[in-house]
User: Fold this.
Amino acid sequence: MPKVYCVGYASLDFLAQTDHIYGTGFTTLLKEFSEGKYGGCAVNIAVGLKKLFDIESVPVTVFGNDREYRNYHEYLSFLDRSYICVKEGMGPRSFIVADKSGNQQTFYYPGNFDPNPDRMPQMKVKDIVIITVSPRKTIEAVLSSLTQKDLVIWSAKMDFGSLSTDVVKQIVSKMRCAVLNEQEMESLKRVLKLNVEEDLFATFKQLEWIVVTMGGRGARLLKKGATTRHVLTEFVKNPKDPTGAGDGFVAGLVGSWLNGKDLEESIKVGHSVAQKVIQFCGAQTAYFM
Assistant:
C-alpha cells in the first residue's frame, strides 16, 4: 500500500450552532458553542485514512507552538508527523457557524507566521498526494516536485477566484483525479472557460476521473470516455455538525478505492463516512467512535 501525503492547512475549529445565519449588520444568536476541536482538511483526511483503513497517511502542514497545537501534535502520534512543520507563534483557527439546515459560514485565521511548510516530501513512485486547501506557495512547491506519473488527487475546497488562472491550470494539468462540489466545478469551468464538465478530459489528457458531490443528492462520477454516473446517498435527519463531512467523503472514497473497490462502490463508502462524521461534533470525532 502506498503512502498518502495530505497537503493543506491545519486548524483548531471553534464550532457554533444557530437557527439562521444573518448577513452583514445583523446579530446571529448562537445556541451551542464548542471550543478547539482538532481539524483542518489535510489532517482530517489523513486521520480518516489511517483510522478507517490503516493506510499510512502523512499530513504536510504547519502547526504553531502554542499549547493547543502542542497538544494537537501529541494527539497525532498514530500518524507520520515528519512533515508537520512546527513554527513559533499561534497556530491556525477556524470559527465555523452552522445553521439547522447544515449551511456553514467559516472565518479562518491562518496563524501569526508564514503558513508554508519548510520542507516537502520526496515522493516515491507509488505514493499519492492529496492536495486540499493550501497556501499558494505550498501548492506551487508541491506541484513543482511532481511528475506526470505521480497520482495527484485534488480535493478542491477552495474559491477558484482566489487563485490566478495560471495556478489553477497548473493544478489541473498535474491532477489525475479530483473531488469537487457543484459550486467548485462551476467556478473551475468559469476560470478555465469551459462549457461542460466533460471538456476537462479533452483539455487535460492525464485526467482519469472526477467526482462532483451534490450534498444530499449524492455525487456524479465522471470518467474519461464513459457516461456520467449518478451515485445516490441517504438523507441524514438532524445532523449534529456538518464540519468535516467533505473530508470524510474524500477519506472514505480514496481509502476504499486504494483497497481495490471500484469507484462507484468507493463513492458509496465516502457517503457512508460523511454521514457518520456529521452525527458528531468536530471533524475527526467520528473516527474514534
Residues 178 and 210 are 5 Å apart (CA to CA). The radius of gyration is 18 Å. The mean pLDDT is 89. The longest strand covers residues 11-18.
